[in-house]
Amino acid sequence: MGPQHRETGKTVSTDNASWGGPNTEKLNKQFQQALRPVAEQFLSKRRERDRNLFIQIRFLSRFLFY
Asked: What is the DSSP-derived secondary structure letter of residue 10?
């Protein structure tokens, strides 16, 4: 029996329920904040690629259909 047990006479619980466990809301928010720049960069590149593809298709379609 450790010092905490002797002082209170109760057992000290170490499971997640006793101390609340990790703050998943805070972790989710931190994860989203960390991931945001990566996602924005990916979407920016994707939009640029899609725009370039659209321009190429539009340019080529002028020769095919006119």
From this structure: S
Residues 6+ apart with CB under 8 A from 4: 12
For residue 22, the 8-state DSSP code is: -
The one-digit pLDDT tens for each residue of the chain (66 residues) are 556 555 666 666 666 555 667 788 888 888 889 999 999 999 999 999 999 999 999 888 888 766
Q: Which residues, 6 or more positions from 60, have their beta carbon under 8 angstroms from its beta carbon?
A: none
How far is the CA of 5 from the CAs of 13, 15, 29, in angstroms? 10, 16, 37
Q: Tokens in use for 47?
A: 């939009």
The dihedral built from the CA positions of residue 39, 42, 43 and 44, taken in this order, carries a sign that is: positive
